Amino acid sequence: MYRAPRGTADVLPEEQGYWRYIEARARALGQRFGYQRLDTPVFEQTALFVRGVGQGTDIVEKEMYSFLDRGGDSMTLRPEGTAPVCRAYLEHGMHNQPQPVRLYYFSPAFRYERPQAGRFRQHHQFGVEALGDGDPSVDAEIVEMAWRLMEDLGLRDLTLLLNSIGDSECRPAYLEHLRAYYASRVERLCQDCRGRLERSPLRLLDCKQEACQALAQEAPRSIDHLCHPCRDHWEELMKCLRRLDIPFRVEPRLVRGLDYYTRTVFEIQPPEERAQSTLCAGGRYDGLIQELGGPPTPGIGFAAGMERMVSNVKGQGVPVPQEESVRVVIAYLGDEAKGEALSLASQLRSKGIGAVLAPAGKSLRAQMRYANSLGVSYALILGEEEMRSGSALLRDMAKGEQRVVPLQGVAEELAN
Ligand code: ATP
Ligand code: MG
Predict the structure, then answer these.
(1) Ligand 1, atom 14: nearest CA belongs to which residue?
(2) Over the stretch 267-291, which tens digit does the pLDDT of each residue have?
(3) In terms of CATH architecture, what is 328-415?
(4) Cα 324 to ligand 1 centre (Å)
(5) Taking the model in full, what pTM does it have?
(6) CA proximity to 161, closest of 259, 270, 55, 64
(7) Rounded to an integer, what distance in angstroms lies between the CA atom of residue 165 and that of residue 263?
(8) Where in the chain is CATH 3.40.50.800?
(9) Ligand located closest to 61 CA
(10) Mutate to test the pocket of ligand 1, among 308, 310, 311, 312 (most ligand atoms within 8 A of CB)
(11) Is there an atom of ligand 1 within 6 Å of 305 CB?
């Protein structure tokens, strides 16, 4: 037997209600905040992600699904959404439109990770990006969107973590402090972090190893080393969030590891904090579009993991409407009734009512069992008796009551 590849999952029919619930709320959120949907391809040139996500990140170092296509070009299944959005923004001249350009997307993301609860090799993201405006009010807008999304989903007891990692002006000096701090404690770092210390010391703050996390607690904080413009931006962002009544906690260890990530970073955590539980992560990337060959352009966005939202919505027992499915099963006996059943089903569907035929050649009892298993509201029963009189039995499944109805007009009656 074949199985779905390790780290991937089927979304079964009974799960679909959760996904549609979250998608509907995410779309409504985009609409309320003036964001437009953008869909980009599932694969891109590998170089886009190497530049746009960055050498020295987990994604580029060890997680990408890259392949040579038959023309010999290196392609990569999208591991994240921001680089493709920025690519499309430049490719379609959106930088010439009034700024900021506000976009959202739904997309699968592919990362070769070690599969665990909440961590997959194919997962799905809802993401938003605001491009072309560096004002702190835009940071507040993005953080607010993430927070409102979680509220709209009915999730409770979440924590919003916020930090500023400065920019190319102030970060170099901060990184020196960080290197000096870690250099005198190298023997307590994990192997990976020892390797990262010279190249990307910020990433040490993000390491999931216990020993490294303990060291990170006492490490120098970026918010204590911001230059004036970054400090003003940071203060104003916090002011906006307070004004919007969005509760946040300053978390000095929250980082993004690359030079083109600037200033604001944030995450939303569920109540029980585990390494793979972050619901949503975002930040500002004022150097990214330039890195991709465009003009200097500020940008900020977040991505929320669909699987993690589903699991929290379930875990917190949020009532989610189930998908409306079939409402009527048509049971019938005999060949003549079969033709009538087909045509009745067709009439019902044309009125927007979900209808299916019970399985052919089964006893009435078996057909009703089938209707029960689908959980339908009604069964229409076409027996030989009814056929002779041009009528049917309409059975209300919940009440267990049935009555004779004329075939003529039964579709209208059910539609009402
Ligand atoms: P981590 O540090 O936990 O690996 P990340 O920084 O790689 O997280 P992002 O790239 O910011 O995560 O992804 C945005 C969101 O997508 C995450 O907050 C999470 O909800 C979801 N996500 C990321 N990777 C996975 C995965 N492998 N499986 C399921 N969801 C994921
Ligand atoms: Mg990751």
Answers:
(1) 303
(2) 999 997 655 689 999 999 999 999 9
(3) 3-Layer(aba) Sandwich (3.40)
(4) 31
(5) 0.93
(6) 270
(7) 5
(8) 328-415
(9) 2
(10) 308
(11) yes
